[in-house]
Amino acid sequence: MTQEEIRKLVSQMTLEEKAALCSGKDFWHTESVERLGIPSIMVSDGPHGLRKQDDKADNLGVNDSIEAVCFPTGSALACSFDKALAESVGVCLGEECRAENVAVLLGPAINMKRSPLCGRNFEYYSEDPYLAGKTAAAFIRGVQSWDVGVSVKHFAANNQEFRRMTGSSNMDERTLREIYLAAFETAVREAKPWTIMCSYNRLNGVFASENRKLLTGILRDEWGFDGFVMSDWGAVNVRTDGLAAGLELQMPGPCPDDDASIAEAVRSGALDEAVLDEAVARILSIVFRYSEARPPRAVFDREADHRKAVLTEQECAVLLKNDGLLPLSRGAKLAYLGGFAAKPRYQGGGSSHIHSSRVSSALECAPEGVVYEEAFPADRDEIDEAAFDRAVRAAAEAETAVIFAGLPDSFESEGYDRSHMRLPACQNELIRRVLAVQKRVVVVLHCGSPVETPWADDVPAVLCLYLGGEGVGEAADALLYGDANPSGRLAETWPRKLEDNPSFLNFPGDEEGVTYAEGVFVGYRYYDKKRMDVRWPFGHGESYTSFAYSNARLEEADGVVRVSVDVTNTGSRAGKEAVQLYVADDTGAANRPPQELKGYEKLTLAPGETKTAQFTLDERSFSWYSESLGDWYAASGPYRILLAHSSRDVRAQLDYTLTAKKRLPLRVHSNTTVGALLADDRTAPIVREAIRRLEAARANEEKPGEAAAEAITAEMVEQMLINSPLRSAQSFLGMSRAEADALLEKLQQAAQS
Ligand code: BGC
């Protein structure tokens, strides 16, 4: 339907029909208007599978949904560092939605991982907005290739579950733009999602659901979003305020009282009817985009998608450590210990909970002869001494012990945050006791976010599956025995302990809100700045082969910087390398993280094979968000481009000098500092000339060797002046009032030029 036809349709609707269309018909459907042929469309949870509820609806994952396929959760998918893979998972989900007549998949969830404690971190991608944004854009392109929409959530700054429906996430504009909005920006600009879901929380005091700056100013006016915004389930505070701010659809429905408040506001003149008409038109555009599309026949092939889930997890799991113990040999005498071997934890709790058609465990895939001892249950922290003894004996008798550990369901879920970062005590205890009798120990982790690993120095191999989806058992088996070569990279830093995390002193805040005091220094941006030791750094992941980087080069063309580096597989197994590009700003123009991810490419390499990783950097790749400019800004000066295996394993470095395309605004008044004037090429020559004159005058007056000249050098004068306001020029530069006024005027004119 064309925009014109939609406008016509809106004009035929009554005020009540229009207001009703702005809230759901029920838990999962939009409102229909039969007399005008307006159909209802269905939305369903994801993001890592389809949670379509045919029967009893809820947003806590309590009631059943149709049998579906559970893919690795967001925390795992981002570790693939593979855009093509994320897109292909999106394609699978898009087809599943089409086959099930679901018009909008409620995901991806792309909030930043500010603290490892956030209960929903397992759904989210990363602590890094670039990685999260690119993963999201690829996933969205995949889903929407089936003419099925996504709902990118939770917009914005929903980084904890504590007081998630009322608390305020408080931060400065630069932090908001660089960290908490940037992934959404990439998703919107690059993949044009059909819908956005606003979050429950307030942002700097204003509910996201009625935040005009967020929903209209930034999302639509700046980024060009052209779909509709829906509320998170129950996120609406004052409905009419939300509508005026840019929240088109309230979910779930029906909401007769809120609909009536909209109609009343229009009647009373408090709300312009044009605002309502626009909201209805935006919703209808998506309704018809879905219902009029004629994609190829879609089939929900659970077998094929299960296989896809297995292969996806093989690309996502991260080999955190390997002192040569892995891969295992299928003929070896092995003991599998820990409840997760038989009952893997492969997804998290809450609205994203998928009713999996089948789940594979490492135990059912294990080669014949593997001895299994449960030792501890997968769902609670409990020591059974007899079970422990049996497990330790099995470990002692085996060649290698493989301990399947992880977080029980109750430890991490939507709705509440973790209270600590530890594994259940029983698991750490079993690992300790096994290490006393067996040095060859592999720990396999099932967790949606980092855990403290006090035993990491003593255990030779650690494989993290994150929450690997329903195919996790088959994937673990393939990775442990080398049928697949691990290629996942950490999408978040694993600190040694919770207290090291930058949000530690300000998480989760109080009743009213939480201050993001660490600013832009989130995750590796903080650990790098503090030169802190971490357990495993961002971007880290081992492989069963090795890679060498060579021939790093760059060229400037058409306003962009093209960077390439050759990567060779120097080992004897085929493998994949996630080549990472970080930019380091050495201009000193702003307080920035030492390096930031600005590109990544995953290469598949046969033994001995060399391929070239290619990157394109634009001005934004070098920029930070300047509040005074109200825009992104890259200063002139030196930068380093780092090509790396991980954030702490840089393999090649290139130098680059940038010439700024924009200027930071300079307001010249009597309190502008000499330093600020010297930093701007319009005013610097004037100030320098004035200083030169001062120096010359002083040199005339003083004789060499005099006490004053010795006590204060020319460099010291310059350093002092940098922090002095112009108003002190009179005394410092020995000027008369008239001369100082003339200088101020001259500088003001120069700043306007
Ligand atoms: C969650 C959303 C989810 C919605 C519908 C809310 O509680 O925050 O992520 O899509 O419920 O289930």
General description of the model:
With 753 residues, the protein is of the alpha/beta class. The chain has four domains: 12-68 and 82-291, Glycoside hydrolase, family 3, N-terminal domain (TIM Barrel); 303-492, Glycoside hydrolase family 3 C-terminal domain (Rossmann fold), CATH 3.40.50.1700; 547-658, Immunoglobulins (Immunoglobulin-like, Sandwich); 674-751, no CATH class. Helices cover 32% and strands 18% of the residues. The protein is built from 23 helices and 24 strands. The strands form six sheets. It has a six-stranded mixed β-sheet, with helices on one face. Strands 1-2-3-5-8 form a five-stranded parallel β-sheet. A hairpin with a 2-residue loop joins strand 23 (637-646) and strand 24. The relative contact order is 0.10. The model has no long low-confidence stretch (mean pLDDT 96). Beta-D-glucopyranose binds at residues 45, 59, 106, 153, 232-233, 351.
Bound compounds, please? beta-D-glucopyranose
Radius of gyration: 29 Å
State the helical fraction. Answer: 25-40%
Query: What oligomeric arrangement do these chains adopt?
Result: single chain
The count of β-strands is 24
CATH class wording of the largest domain: Alpha Beta
Widest sheet: strand ordering: 9-14-13-12-10-11
> Strand content of the residues, in percent?
15-25%
Global outline: globular
Discrete helix count: 23
Report the biggest beta sheet as strand number plus sense, adding barrel if it closes.
6 strands, mixed
Kindly identify the CATH topology of the largest domain. TIM Barrel
Regions with little confidence, pLDDT below 50 for 5+ residues: none
CATH architecture of the largest domain: Alpha-Beta Barrel
Q: CATH H level of the largest domain: which superfamily?
A: Glycoside hydrolase, family 3, N-terminal domain
* N-to-C CA distance: 50 Å
